[in-house]
């Protein structure tokens, strides 16, 4: 954890200093002042290293003066194009690459960012998360990690206030990253539900856990079917945050929560199967989102539903060819037991619409490998029945750097999942456009006129290697996007 404090411009400098440089290179006002103080050392170092102040550049200059140890020049690109996101990325890079325990951040306001130090600190904080709880022997040559950031701001009180909101959100992201990283021997539906309850109840979120008996009573045949091969019983966790006096539920968030997806009887190939511990990243994001909303006391009436199950092959497992009855009453021909996410979501989406009648319904799911084939690892797939909602979500994604790309939904794809023996089948006929057929399947289980969006995060929820922008493993994708969405469109 990084401690971030805010202060006015100091009389003297010491330790590690962070200053900005725009494309050219053009030193920022603070950097220029410092350069004067250091006899032009900064400008010379930039020249020696042929740096241009472009986005993503980072230049550490050792300064042998009595007080200052090193100066970090961060490239911010063109001043006019410098957004909070550019500064956040600079903060991430700084955290990942600069060896220091402390730093003083001297970033000057730019036309579109009044508090650049706040965005920079958010980036550094976000990048500081790692998942190392199971490493009992720490690597010997562990690099120095940033522990404390002192951020200079014209109005430290305002900066502190702005940062508090981002820090709550970061706490939500960390919660998501950690829960998504937990292996499936530790995290299964019951332990997940208990963690959610223990974490969110003290923060004022109402948490209700539906166990197997209640799911049977309700008739959630799809959730039960997916889980029936596992020794772990499924759970559906219902969250309610009443941060406003609004009676009606403004927004509901549903998450796919497969604590492990082996594929079931349609067993997945060995390669990469261990990564299927993150098949609950949708539910993990909803969990983290509610932590963020509660911590920052968001003025919204929101509901969350986590559909938790484990998909395993066994003598009691669901078979290809089974026909199940979902909560909605619609029957599903299960053609592939590995297309299980859409099944648990069918019950969760219907339940959410039926019980809460939200105005807006957003689901997150690591639903299809096909979405990563189509969009890669930078964009999540976005599907929606409302253009307004789709464009609002797209802009929010751009603002926080969790990007979405909308994919089409049409009758043509809907026909593809008609079944000859049941109401619908869980697999398209041809196999092409797999992410779209999956979305069409979900659409059959929402109740119009709800404004619905489905985010397929199978390509974005997990990173295989550590980069300056992201730690290895769970990314927490969706938490900042949806927190920003709630803040700009629901409060
Ligand atoms: N959980 C997987 C999708 C997935 C793939 C998530 C890669 C994260 C990374 C999902 O349940 C699944 O198995 N989907 C199948 C669908 C197919 C059987 C129609 C897929 O993508 O192959
Ligand atoms: Mn699957
Ligand atoms: Zn899955």
Could you characterize the architecture of this molecule?
- This protein is an alpha/beta fold and 491 residues long.
- It folds into 2 domains: 3-153, 3-Layer(aba) Sandwich (Leucine Aminopeptidase, subunit E, domain 1); 168-489, Aminopeptidase (3-Layer(aba) Sandwich).
- It has helices spanning 29-37, 41-48, 84-97, 116-127, 156-181, 189-200, 212-218, 221-227, 281-295, 341-356, 369-375, 387-400, 411-415, 434-443, 479-490; strands at 3-7, 15-22, 26-27, 58-62, 68-75, 102-106, 148-152, 206-210, 235-242, 251-261, 301-311, 323-325, 331-333, 360-365, 379-384, 403-406, 424-425, 451-456, 462-463, 473-474.
- Strands 8-9-11-10-14-18-15-16 form an 8-stranded mixed beta sheet, sandwiched between helices. Strands 1, 2, 3, 4, 5, 6 and 7 form a 7-stranded mixed beta sheet that branches.
- Helix 12 (387-400) links the parallel strand 15 and strand 16.
- Helix 3 (84-97) crosses helix 4.
- The longest helix is centred in the middle third of the chain and has 26 residues, at 156-181.
- The radius of gyration is 24 Å and the shape is elongated.
- It starts with a strand and ends with a helix.
- The structure holds ligand BES, manganese (II) ion (MN) and zinc ion.
- Residues 261, 263, 338, 340 line the site of manganese (II) ion (MN).
- Residues 261, 279, 336, 338-341, 366, 368-370, 427, 434, 458 line the site of ligand BES.
Distance between the termini: 29 Å
Strand tally: 20
> How does the overall form come out from the CA principal axes?
elongated
CA radius of gyration is 24 Å
CATH class category of the largest domain: Alpha Beta
């Amino acid at each position: 954890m990084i401690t971030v404090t805010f202060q006015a411009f100091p009389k003297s400098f010491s330790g590690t200093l962070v200053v900005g440089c725009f494309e050219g290179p053009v030193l920022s006002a603070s950097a220029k002042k410092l350069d004067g103080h250091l006899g032009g050392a900064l400008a010379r170092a930039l020249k020696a290293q042929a740096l241009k102040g472009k986005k993503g550049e980072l230049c550490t200059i050792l300064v042998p003066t009595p007080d200052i140890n090193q100066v970090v020049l961060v490239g911010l690109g063109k001043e006019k194009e410098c957004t909070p996101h550019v500064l956040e990325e600079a903060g991430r890079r700084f955290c990942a690459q600069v060896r220091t325990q402390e730093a003083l951040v001297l970033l000057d306001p730019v036309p579109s960012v009044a508090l650049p130090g706040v965005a920079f600190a958010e980036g550094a904080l976000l990048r500081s998360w790692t998942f190392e709880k199971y490493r009992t022997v720490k690597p010997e040559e562990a690099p120095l990690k940033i522990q404390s950031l002192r951020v200079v701001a014209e109005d430290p009180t305002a900066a502190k206030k702005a940062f508090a909101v981002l820090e709550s959100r970061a706490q939500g992201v960390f919660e998501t990253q950690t829960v998504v990283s937990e292996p499936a021997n530790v995290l299964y539906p019951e332990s997940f539900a208990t963690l959610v309850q223990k974490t969110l109840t003290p923060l004022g979120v109402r948490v209700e856990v539906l166990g197997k008996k209640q799911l049977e009573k309700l008739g959630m045949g799809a959730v039960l079917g997916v889980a029936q091969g596992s020794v772990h019983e499924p759970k559906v966790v219902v969250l309610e945050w009443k941060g406003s006096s609004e009676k009606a539920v403004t927004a509901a968030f549903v998450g796919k929560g497969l604590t492990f997806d082996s594929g079931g009887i349609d067993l997945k190939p060995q390669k990469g199967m261990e990564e299927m511990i993150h098949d609950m990243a949708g539910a993990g994001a909803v969990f983290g989102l509610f932590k963020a909303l509660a911590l920052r006391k968001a003025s919204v009436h929101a509901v969350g539903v986590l559909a938790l199950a484990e998909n395993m092959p066994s003598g009691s497992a669901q078979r290809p060819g089974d026909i199940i009855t979902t909560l909605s009453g619609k029957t599903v021909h299960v053609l592939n037991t590995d297309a299980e996410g859409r099944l648990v979501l069918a019950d969760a989406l219907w339940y959410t619409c039926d019980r809460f009648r939200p105005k807006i319904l957003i689901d997150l799911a690591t639903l299809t490998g096909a979405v990563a084939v189509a969009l890669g690892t930078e964009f999540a797939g976005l599907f929606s029945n409302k253009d307004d909602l789709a464009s609002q979500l797209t802009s929010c994604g751009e603002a926080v750097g969790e990007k979405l790309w909308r994919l089409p939904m049409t009758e043509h794809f809907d026909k593809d999942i008609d079944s000859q023996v049941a109401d619908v089948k869980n697999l398209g006929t041809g196999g092409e456009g797999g992410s779209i057929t999956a979305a069409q399947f979900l659409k059959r289980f929402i109740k119009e006129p709800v404004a619905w969006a489905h985010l397929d995060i199978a390509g974005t929820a997990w990173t295989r290697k550590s980069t300056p922008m992201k730690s290895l493993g769970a990314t927490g994708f969706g938490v900042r996007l949806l927190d920003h969405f709630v803040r700009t469109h629901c409060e």
